[in-house]
């Protein structure tokens, strides 16, 4: 096992208090952890660093009803303690470390060996036997398409309208079904240091169908080594479906506390519900976010977590495969290079795009299945070290419901010293909503155009002079109110975050080859015909 330096790595007080609470509940795992902590550093948990002890985010947390731990009061308490240490009242080693860390986001390296490719030698995390079927010969096993006959047409259409998927077929497929392996063959021969970080898997849902939600949970439990799965945290964003109430509470009892559900007291939207999930998830060192209609692939965990175990400021994203919402077959996404590898990108109206992996990125790898850099992520599926996510301020609390948060977190990571990697050997299937879905309208308190307002907040904070290209593409957003962003800009200044020009030249250099910069607007408005001295809105075009 690898030892960590006790002078450098200290548990945050928040983690210590939470472990004490769990210990009182009689959790054997935490009891063992505390016994070890009393005698020596722990290779995994002891390496979490000083994030919550020193760093005071300038971005306020979203208000959450019923949060067990008051994070703001803990930060105030820790601030007073650190000030005492800095004036001679504390450990000199501790003081020196505090002075070095978190002035900017400098990588904090864990004691972790790099993965090793051994061609022909099955990887140490690979299953030794073929994955068992949920139901032998059952529908949808091995991700084969399951097509229902015309007798089900009306019920299928009704389920698509309500949930966005063919729930009739989904409900007939085992929650523990086997899936096909879409990885490159080379992925099977990677060997990973077993000193991986543990994870809390966070899943946010709002009025999700039963079987798609539960198949997500089942797949995580089935395909994740138990020693690394600290908890699965379900955030119910104010659902009103009966099957997501008492039935869900009763169903998850079979896992004896591994799966937990927390319910928002009002509709917060996907973005802020994820921030709430970060606060509720207290046991894992890494936060793994999944959408509520996914299936993780074979040996998905080790490749995804290994880069974070090496460098705590690395955020990783699995390759996202396409689950057909009608027949539940799983296929690779279209596009990308000859191997199907793509980088996350955007056009200048801030719509999500995928572009082929560039020759520059390919040249950085010795083996084609190594993780590679991406300017942005799609946003629904990713892993990030928990304390690092809190140091980044979680999501901008001014972003509402859905949209733009994937770019905000991507820019924040890159421009403030971290990095974002796509991981070819970690694959997760995702169901995309079908045409005919009635959707989930935002609550009344949100107001109009929340997604466009989100986009404006993101470009105003992170794009610098490049924001003019966004307004050239979306001139109608120029007059949208987007709220106060002064604290977010102060965050950039306080942490010496790099410019968007640097980001475009060093990381996102290939985007303009596919989406050229548009000409900037000189003026924007409406052209109208005059009737004598009056203008009428119907005469404007």
UniProtKB/TrEMBL annotation:
Pathway: Protein modification; protein glycosylation
Topology class, membrane: Single-pass membrane protein; Single-pass type II membrane protein
Domain Glycosyltransferase 2-like: 200-386
Coiled-coil features, chain-numbered ranges: none
Cited Pfam families: Glycos_transf_2
Keyword DNA damage: no
GO MF annotation: an example: polypeptide N-acetylgalactosaminyltransferase activity
Cofactors that this protein relies on: Mn(2+)
Region annotation (Disordered) ranges: 18-57
GO aspect biological process, one term: protein O-linked glycosylation
Protein location: Endomembrane system; Membrane
Gene Ontology CC, one term: membrane
Basic and acidic residues compositional bias, start-end: 29-56
Chief site of localization: membrane
Alphabetical keyword list: Disulfide bond, Glycosyltransferase, Manganese, Membrane, Metal-binding, Signal-anchor, Transferase, Transmembrane, Transmembrane helix
Domain of life per record: Eukaryota
Protein family per UniProt: Belongs to the glycosyltransferase 2 family. GalNAc-T subfamily.
PANTHER family linked to this entry: N-ACETYLGALACTOSAMINYLTRANSFERASE, N-ACETYLGALACTOSAMINYLTRANSFERASE 7
Name of the protein: Polypeptide N-acetylgalactosaminyltransferase 7
Organism the protein comes from: Anas platyrhynchos platyrhynchos
